[in-house]
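A common beginner's mistake is to predict each chain separately and then try to dock the pieces by hand. The better habit, illustrated here, is to supply every component at once so that their relative placement is modeled jointly.
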Amino acid sequence: MSLAEIKPRNIKFALAGEDKRNWFAGNPVATAIMDGASILFPLGETFFIQSVVHFRDRIADPQLQAEITGFQQQEGIHSREHRRYNKAVEAFGGNIAELEGRLQAEIDELERRNASPEYKLALTCAFEHFTAMLADDLLAHPDFMAGADPEFSRIWHWHAIEEAEHKSVAYDVWNVVGPKGLKGYWMRARAMMKATSVFVGQSRYNARALLRARGYGGFRTTVLGVLYFSLIKPGVLRRSLPAYLAYFKPGFHPWQHDNRHLIEKFKSAYEA
Ligand SMILES: [Fe+2]
Ligand SMILES: [Fe+2]
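With all components supplied together, the output reads:
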């Protein structure tokens, strides 16, 4: 059960414009890393919605039913806004459709292998843990986006709040419909390993491709710059490691890490 209210905020962000080039504090590496992750959202979040809604009929609890609706609405709007985001930043270089095609190929591969709806849900739970973890990191470190363009900072904080709010929905559905015992644990752990390689691999690939297309193709930027941002400063992946490992605990639940205070801290900025 979710500890937070799952409230969709239907906002359109103004992200287009030449002044948005290197929107992340004038830093091309940080900008490309965030933009590279954004490329994964429209297709990814559509996949998450489908994977969860597939099991809607098997959920008897009216509260979880309502949470599924909130989840579906939030992710639907995220998907729409990140499509607009991706279109806006494409002006600075990079072929978004081509990069998205690599994620589509992973989704197609699941279909080709006839992956079970349970496994797709396990993948969704794993990706949702990733987004919740990165959201928590963003909200917990107010200096994270220091110097960023205000509207880009606003879309990322908005997305982070809502990822935190709905972080347990896929997982609670999994707890009802997923396989139990060792079989369930193994499927969940295996899905996390797959999700890790797709998320880390593709977001890094996208960041490098965007950097090259934007004229920053040197080794120092595409390899060392990206590693520095991920592991050293701000070191998002390094900082998130304990939260990542917690997912492998047998009795894990997303709300064992209660970060409602972070949601409360930021959400008033989005009240209509
Ligand atoms: Fe989302
Ligand atoms: Fe999500």
